[in-house]
Amino acid sequence: MATTMTADEILDREFLLIRGKTLELAAAFDRLNRASGDVAADPRLQRIWEALDALQSPTSDRAEQIQLIFSRSYEDDWREQYGI
Hints:
Radius of gyration: 18 Å
Number of helices: 4
Number of strands: 0
Shape: flat
Largest sheet: none
Order of helices and strands: HHHH
Structural class: mainly alpha
Number of domains: 1
């Protein structure tokens, strides 16, 4: 039988990984800010900002919400659209 970890145990295990990924995000945004050009209106960047907002939600389905932000809507005729 599997034992359930406490929140403290999970934070101990995940802290350095979360810290590293947060630093990666910050570095990517810094590179965007230093680069020439403007991507503020790019829908991809807008989705990223929306996903970052979703991270701050107190709900337990953040991963699902973020997946939906980056996913296409389901369409019944997807096979026909892609010639499958």
